[in-house]
Specification:
By secondary structure, the protein is α+β, with helices and mostly antiparallel strands. It is 22% helix and 34% strand. It has a domain at 56-135: Monooxygenase (Up-down Bundle).
Length: 453
């Protein structure tokens, strides 16, 4: 058939075909396919693939593509990235999807980052770190060796760990290298706290002392307690030092002179923890910026206003059981907004503005865990065998790490959490350094550290 005649015939056939019903069209196609040979069928197959597969991400406006992608889970999106370079480019640039995925993993989001390809990379890093936590591969351990007697006191700050021992010494360690920076002769240390210049120690000899790191000299000696001093805290701005003791009292001292300014009474058990912190919320009893003292014993947490007026009365006493049938663990978290303490019933969280219990987090029945650190996203817990990470949004344990037979302490001072910022959400940079430290029966200090990615 000549080309001209063929084109006329094809036009007539097309007009007739378009006038048919869908069923008639299908029957016509079936008949034509049955008459076709291998060449025609191959041609049909190749063209059908092109006609049926429409790249909607390429055809749609970018805003609509992003809207559709938001409905897919991250794992499906990662699979979709393998379809083509174009798909990978569009999906990788879908910032909101990857930011949401990171948040769901407990990752901090910095909205100031404008790079559209940044957040997919962050998600991939986050999913790897969370998998390492789940598979018990996120941490590593090391030891600090140097004391010749029991290590009673630990305090951590900015990559440095201070240890106070029954060998009448205190040492300052660089956690990253394991090197001892300072070692000074002290009394027996039950509690320690330090800064760049000084070390404050509470002792089993019933006193508190202040020492100079560079020379090892004792610059102040605070005498007045009639029992061992289990906890100390201080504030240079207020020129105040506070100490909690086995004599059931809390003493407030002038840091610079060593003078006892006040003795706070009311506890009926050893005062195992004192915390000085600025208030961050407003209530009838305090305002943001006020300095607050918390003191805790076996059954109660007492709240005191500390400022220029040293003579203060207890604002509130918190407990988890009126009949004292449930005791508190000797660990206390206070960030100016919330108070958190653990007991046999679980973790108790109080709102500092109202003093109401916000929630009680109960771990699994088979666990009797104690508090180490508490943040906005995660909590760090432990028992005699494991270190645990809890997702506070679901109150589920997401990871654990085995612990050796460490030295037990009724006062809670022979173990501590290290870096704490990651408890408010990981960000790919704060998962470094010390996680946990505890003293061992052989006088060494056992460290749990984040393993590098």
């Amino acid at each position: 058939m000549e080309k001209k005649d063929f084109e006329a015939w094809l036009d007539n056939i097309s007009i007739t075909f378009l006038s048919l019903t869908d069923l008639q069209k299908n029957e016509t196609l079936d008949h034509l396919i049955s008459l076709s040979g291998a060449v025609q069928l191959r041609h049909l197959s190749n063209n059908l693939e092109i006609l049926l597969k429409r790249d909607f991400l390429k055809l749609l406006p970018l805003e609509l593509s992003f809207y559709l992608l938001k409905w897919l889970d991250p794992q499906t999106l990662l699979t979709c990235c393998l379809v083509s370079k174009q798909w990978n480019k569009v999906i990788s640039a879908c910032t909101e999807v990857w930011q949401t995925a990171c948040k769901n993993l407990g990752w901090q989001i910095d909205d100031s980052v404008q790079d559209p390809l940044h957040w997919k990379k962050v998600y991939l890093k986050a999913i790897l770190r969370m998998k390492q936590l789940k598979d018990h591969e996120a941490f590593e351990t090391s030891s600090l060796i140097g004391h010749s007697a029991r290590v009673y006191a630990l305090y951590y700050k900015d990559g440095l760990l201070c240890t106070g021992s029954d060998d009448l010494s205190a040492k300052l360690w660089d956690v990253s290298t394991g090197q001892c920076i300072y070692g000074i002769q002290t009394h027996t240390c039950a509690a320690v706290k330090f800064d760049e210049q000084k070390l404050v120690t509470g002792s089993f000899d019933n006193t508190v002392a202040c020492w100079e790191w560079s020379s090892g000299a004792k610059t102040q000696h605070f005498r007045g307690h009639t029992g061992a001093v289990f906890s100390v805290d201080y504030n240079d701005e207020l020129d105040v030092l506070v100490s909690g003791s086995a004599d059931f009292t809390v003493k407030v001292w002038a840091l610079s002179t060593g003078t006892c300014l006040n003795t706070l009474t009311g506890h009926t058990e050893w005062v195992t923890k004192v915390v000085l912190q600025k208030c961050k919320v407003k209530s009838l009893m305090h305002s943001p910026g006020d300095h607050i003292l918390l003191s805790a014993d076996k059954y109660e947490i007492k709240i005191w206003p500390i400022g220029r007026e040293i003579n203060c009365k207890c604002l509130k006493t918190l407990s988890v059981s009126e009949d004292r049938s449930i005791s508190l663990q000797p660990r206390l978290h206070f960030d100016g907004k919330y108070i958190v303490c653990s007991s046999a019933l679980g973790l108790y969280q109080w709102d500092f503005a109202s003093y109401d219990i916000l929630r009680v987090i109960k771990p699994p029945d088979f666990l009797n865990v104690s508090l180490l650190g508490f943040g906005e996203i995660f909590a760090l817990l432990f028992d005699s065998r494991y270190l645990y990470i809890m997702d506070l949004r679901t109150e589920k344990l997401i990871s654990r790490w085995p612990l050796p037979e460490y030295r037990k302490s009724k006062r809670g001072s022979s173990f501590l959490a290290g870096e704490m910022s990651w408890l408010n959400g990981l960000n790919g940079q704060n998962d470094t350094g010390l996680v946990f430290a505890t003293s061992m029966p052989d006088h060494s200090i056992h460290l749990v550290l984040w393993k590098e990615h």
